Amino acid sequence: MVTYAAVFFLVVSFVLGAVWGSFLNVCIYRIPLGKSVIFPGSHCTACGTPIKWYDNIPIISYLILQGHCRACGAYFSARYAGIELLTAILFLLLWLRYPAQPLVVAQWIIACLLIVATFTDVDHFIIPDSISLGGCSFALVASGLLGSSSLCAMDFEFWKGFLDFGFKATISSSLIGQHLAIFLWSALGAAFGWGLLSAVALFGRYVFAKEAMGGGDVKLFAFIGGYFGMTGVLAVLFLSAVVGAIVGVSILLWHKFFCRDEIDEVEFRRDRAKFPPYAEIHPERVSVIPELDLSSSTEVDKNRVIRVARRTSRQLHHFPYGPYIAFAAMLMLFFYPELHEWLREHLWLISEPSWQ
User: Fold this and answer.
1) Which residues are registered as beta bridge partners of 309?
2) For the purposes of burial, counting CB atoms within 10 Å of the CB of 26, is it exposed (0-12), middle (13-18) or buried (19 or more)?
3) How far is Cα 141 from Cα 194, in angstroms, rounded to an integer?
């Protein structure tokens, strides 16, 4: 039976998420540029006019103004409203998943950090240290404060039971003992996440002879390990790899079969064109019609056209990995208890928390 109190908290969760989503838009835009997320206040990036409070109501103001600045009419991307709506929905769903639990506040903050990491990586191919390392610090503190209520405590019990070959895990009955043990396990999980993805990055660099994993991704895994523990690191690595492979291959195939290559044609006139001996044109990026003889510094005897491919299916090889990591971690926010229950059932582990 749905009560008025339940509906009230659902509405509050949605509204709170929308408000935080509006702030996340500021973070996504300003943090990569090294700007303060507090000062100055929200303003139009086209004309600089400060946005009034009644034009800054999440989702609603965007719909009323139809995505345009009231002062100059500049268009705002629909992504602003989309991020506000996404955050509101996630807050609502997380409240439904963990109603009236202290854990839900930590879950909301983790979701916000993952959203910022996703869109900064999409826009700039970077994950700011303030998000990854800041998130790792928050994960350590949250795990220590929540103690037995944290997701990291669940991971502690699981691995303690695994290493003890099925015997029940025990943690000191004192309150300080519980919180200290979970804090230390959270720190171990952060180190494990950092080390595991660093090894993956080194292996990728050795195999592909180029950077295969960014430093931001490595730090993001330290953040994930600090909040979920070692099981979460392994689960997120597996899920992100699977999702990334599916999405990446799908994008490549879609572009190859349904999109046209974008090509710029540059014409060189015979009275202007000179090609010094040291000139180089990379064959995978540029096709010349007809072939140019770059070994000579003499003038080209007739007009030539160089076709430069700006975007082709062959060039779509650099995808940000952060969004796949964030998506997998978001799934863990909702289904981490079920994952551990499944592992206990299929690995025959007995690891019931001793404090419950």
Assistant:
1) 263
2) middle
3) 18
